[in-house]
Automatic annotation (TrEMBL):
Primary site of residence: membrane
The name this protein goes by in its record: Amino-acid permease BAT1 homolog
GO terms, molecular function: transmembrane transporter activity
A Gene Ontology cellular-component term: membrane
Keywords, in A-Z order: Membrane, Transmembrane, Transmembrane helix, Transport
Naturally occurring in which organism (per UniProt): Vigna mungo (Black gram)
Membrane topology category: Multi-pass membrane protein
Length: 521
């Protein structure tokens, strides 16, 4: 019979007085310390912030969100989404403080749902997280502007070359993640300063360089639908779709939870990193949106297929118009686009780190095929290198359809958001309905506030997942159809079928790997 130690029992073990509080809690939960616990709070915050990234979410979807209903809904949408994101982050911070484990979301779901529903909750949450793997995108605009722009004979990267760049970046991320986590942590410290300093440069410089800026009334109050381009004439529906850029950008803060077994004092520093990354991205993200929107020179020209960026890269066009308008060259725009591209690179690196920890934790609990392979650690660096390369292979496979399907990025964006954010819902709902006497709080504890906070967080997650299943363009045909519901339905259907036919017989959730006595968990 597997039992775990109480804090009282631990205190009686000689030499245990200096044990890290999070390591002690990890032992209580039935896990021994295997990964190196050498991450500081700032390094964990850096990785969490890099996973969210300042530019990665906003840049690809800014143009489409602006086109749906104009600037007002885009600008205020960020405020609304940030407000509700805090509820989700606070709910997750409390759970992270109580369960500082690498398995994070699915581990939380298993323990919070209780012995009856724990295995099923854990199974659903684990696979939602896995389905939420994300792909990076963002080099085409740099190539186009660097080679003369669309008007000047610039090189517009074909699909096969874009796929090669995508695969190359994925391999680079995997190689870097094969080394010690300390290397990744140092890179992510560079990342946080890259994005903060780069973000400040863009936010301050762009409106100053632009020959003219839009009025405050245009930015904060102007509504303008584009039914001829989007096929959407309903203002409420257009406003809902314009929020997508914010909902896509404001998640990923659970990366701090995935690193809790490698973070010193994770029961305290994990929640700080989660909430800190939300706070930083909320402020800088809104500032970035405002800088872009105020700096628009000609709203209609942004979507002209004959403009310098072929009407496909609105943020790049805004940068080009500002610098070319004042200096008659695009060098400044290219430099700032490299700052944005760096954010994509750092984000992909951090996401690979986070995804590998999920696969490692799930493999440790025998929840994926060939678990014995994916749970192995690098003998020297003590990182889950096999899990890293499995994640890289899956990401490459996800990108292959881009050769034939035009809406791959939209579909992957939706699947990624639904899978990743949907995974948050399972432990938060379990925390909402569980009996308080069965919960052992950590240093970050909500007390009586947990029920209303968890309720708002859960409802917001359900709403977010729903809107990413909606059609984004009309009329609906093979080129405009949102494939996310079909792809997600097939994936979740297979996972549920696996559960019903086989997995429910052997998958019991997190598997303890420590065999010591305990009074209470």
């Amino acid at each position: 019979m597997l039992l775990v130690c109480s804090e009282r029992n631990f205190a009686e073990v000689p030499g245990d007085t200096t044990m890290d509080s999070a390591e002690k809690r990890l032992n209580e939960l039935g896990y021994k310390q295997e990964l190196r616990r050498e991450m500081t709070m700032f390094k964990t915050l850096a990785i969490s912030f890099s996973t969210m990234t300042l530019f990665t979410g906003i840049t690809p979807l800014y143009g489409s969100s602006l086109q749906y209903a104009g600037p007002a809904t885009l600008v205020w949408g960020w405020i609304v989404v940030s407000f509700f994101t805090w509820f989700v982050g606070i709910a997750m911070a409390e759970i992270c403080s109580s369960f500082p484990t690498t398995g994070s979301l699915y581990f939380w779901a298993a323990h919070l749902a209780g012995p009856k529903w724990g295995p099923f909750s854990s199974w659903c949450c684990a696979w939602l997280e896995t389905i939420g793997l994300i792909a990076g995108i963002g080099t085409q605009s740099i190539i186009l502007l660097s080679t003369g722009t669309n008007k000047g004979g610039g090189y517009f990267a074909p699909k096969w070359l874009f796929l090669c760049m995508y695969i190359g970046l994925t391999v680079i991320w995997a190689v870097l993640n094969t080394f010690a986590l300390e290397v990744i942590a140092l890179i992510d410290i560079v990342s946080i300063w890259w994005q903060v300093i780069g973000g400040l440069v863009i936010v301050i410089m762009l409106p100053l360089v632009a020959l003219s800026t839009k009025s405050a009334s245009f930015v904060f109050t102007h509504l303008e639908l584009a039914p001829e381009s989007t096929g959407i004439s309903s203002k409420p529906y257009a406003a809902i779709l314009s929020f997508l850029v914010s909902q896509y950008s404001l998640y990923g803060y659970d990366a701090a939870a995935h690193l809790t077994e490698e973070t010193k004092g994770a029961d305290k520093n994990g929640p700080i990193a989660i909430l800190g990354s939300i706070g930083i991205i909320s402020v800088f993200g809104w500032a970035y949106i405002l800088a872009l929107t105020f700096s628009i020179q000609d709203f209609g020209y942004l979507y002209d297929p004959n403009n310098e960026t072929a009407g496909a890269f609105v943020p790049a066009q805004i940068l080009y118009d500002a610098f070319h308008g004042r200096y008659h060259n695009s060098a400044g725009a290219i430099i700032l686009l490299f700052v944005i591209w760096g954010s994509f690179f750092f984000g992909g690196l951090s996401i690979t780190t986070s995804a590998a920890r999920v696969v490692y934790a799930l493999s440790r609990d025998k929840g994926v095929p060939f678990s014995h392979l994916w749970r192995q650690l690098h003998p020297k660096y003590k990182v889950p290198s096999n899990a890293v390369w499995l994640c890289a292979a899956i990401c490459i496979l996800l990108g292959l359809p881009i050769l034939k399907v035009n809406v791959v990025f939209t579909a992957i964006t939706s699947i990624c958001t639904i899978g990743w954010v949907g995974g948050y819902a399972v432990p938060i709902f379990a925390r909402l309905v569980m009996s308080e006497k069965n919960f052992k709080p950590g240093p970050f504890y909500l007390g009586k506030a947990r029920r209303p906070i968890c309720l708002v967080a859960f409802l917001w997650i359900c709403y977010t997942c729903s809107v990413f299943l909606l059609p984004t363009l009309y009329p609906i045909d093979w080129d405009t159809f949102n494939y996310a519901p079909v792809a997600l339905g097939v994936a979740l259907g297979l996972v549920m079928l696996w559960w019903l036919l086989d997995a429910r017989k052997w998958f019991k959730g997190p598997v303890r790997n420590i065999d010591i006595q305990n009074d209470k968990v």
